[in-house]
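Why should sequence recovery work at all? Because a backbone constrains its sequence more than one might expect. Tight turns favour small or flexible residues, buried strands favour hydrophobic ones, and helices have their own preferences. The token representation captures these environments compactly. In the example below, the structure is given first.
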């Protein structure tokens, strides 16, 4: 949480033009991670998500697929009421409804997604069912809920007392205006590489807090919030979904890696596309990426984006390089 508070302070300053330019801040503690060796499994996720990475790691160690690993990994924050940006306990839209977005992709290029899904704690598992049990890629809203019910998912009230109380306060302060709230940053995007060399990815979120009802961000959109190409690698995004959608960010990162860019450089280029095109002082965007050789990296607009990397059973939270301090 301190990172988000810091980010808010920075964006206030940012709007007064305190811009430090292109900075490579290498406060990275990657050296404390063991070096990746070919044939090892590996997991990378957005933000401080060690428990999620540990669950994914455990799945890989049990011999499960990268697809199982990412599903099991992201289910951890989905089920955690303390995490107010993913799954159960997520902050609601401006009408007080918790609407969830998620997508999943396997090593064969199969993909599944749900958008604006209500009442289901684990949208990632519904997205996987869309991928595996339907001829479609995306199900949205009432149709997604109907499908989840038919697949036996339990319906429940996802709005916790804490998120309800914050929403009630927001309604007073914001005079019920729809705003895009930059405070809401903990979406989990996760990529896993199995020891069989296959990669899969998942992304899940409650989206921007107090969004308009029906708003869908980048997170459930294949190629925007997450993308995997098993020949090359994968990428995932967090932050202001509208900017990621307009630049098809995760697909771009993977295509840049295909052209030979290191994952960190590819993430930087995707961030720079946004910076070139729109006002960026008040938005955060962070990308993570990993290639098939186990190289990884991240880049973000504002300092304060962390990501979690797991190699050889060790999980480390690393600081992403950023464009602005
Ligand atoms: C969205 N990208 O709905 C998501 C929000 C997010 O960390 O990433 N929060 O736009």
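From this structural description, the recovered sequence reads:
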């Amino acid at each position: 949480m301190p990172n988000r508070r810091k980010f808010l302070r920075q964006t206030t300053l940012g709007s007064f033009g305190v811009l430090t330019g292109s900075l490579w801040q290498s406060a990275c503690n990657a050296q404390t991670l063991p070096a990746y060796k070919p044939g090892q499994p590996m997991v990378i996720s957005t933000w401080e998500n060690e428990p999620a990475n540990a669950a994914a790691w455990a799945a890989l160690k049990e011999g499960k697929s990268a697809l199982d690993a990412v599903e099991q990994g992201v289910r951890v924050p989905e089920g955690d009421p303390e995490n107010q940006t993913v799954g159960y306990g997520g902050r609601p839209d401006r009408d007080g409804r918790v609407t969830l977005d998620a997508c999943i992709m396997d090593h064969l290029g199969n993909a599944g997604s749900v958008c604006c899904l209500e009442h289901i704690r684990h949208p990632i598992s519904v997205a996987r069912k869309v991928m595996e049990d339907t001829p479609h890629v995306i199900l949205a809203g009432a149709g997604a809920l109907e499908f989840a019910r038919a697949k036996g998912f339990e319906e429940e009230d996802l709005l916790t007392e804490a998120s309800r109380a914050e929403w009630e306060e927001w309604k007073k302060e914001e005079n019920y205006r729809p705003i895009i709230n930059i405070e809401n940053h903990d979406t989990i995007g996760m990529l896993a590489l199995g020891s069989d060399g296959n990669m899969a990815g998942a992304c899940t979120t409650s989206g921007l807090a107090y969004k308009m009802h029906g708003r869908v961000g980048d997170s459930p959109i294949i190629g925007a919030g997450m993308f995997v190409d098993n020949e090359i690698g994968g990428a995932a995004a967090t932050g202001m979904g509208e900017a990621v959608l307009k630049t098809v960010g995760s697909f771009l990162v993977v295509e840049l890696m295909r052209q030979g860019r290191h994952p960190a450089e590819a993430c930087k280029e995707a961030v720079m596309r946004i910076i070139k095109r729109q006002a960026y002082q008040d938005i955060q965007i962070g990308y993570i990426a990993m290639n098939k050789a186990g190289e990884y990296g991240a880049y973000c607009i504002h300092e304060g984006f962390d990501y979690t990397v797991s190699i050889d059973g060790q999980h480390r939270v690393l600081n992403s390089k950023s464009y602005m301090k």
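A few observations help interpret the result. Residues 85, 184-187, 205, 207-208, 217-219, 238-241 surround N-hydroxy-L-asparagine (CB under 6 Å).
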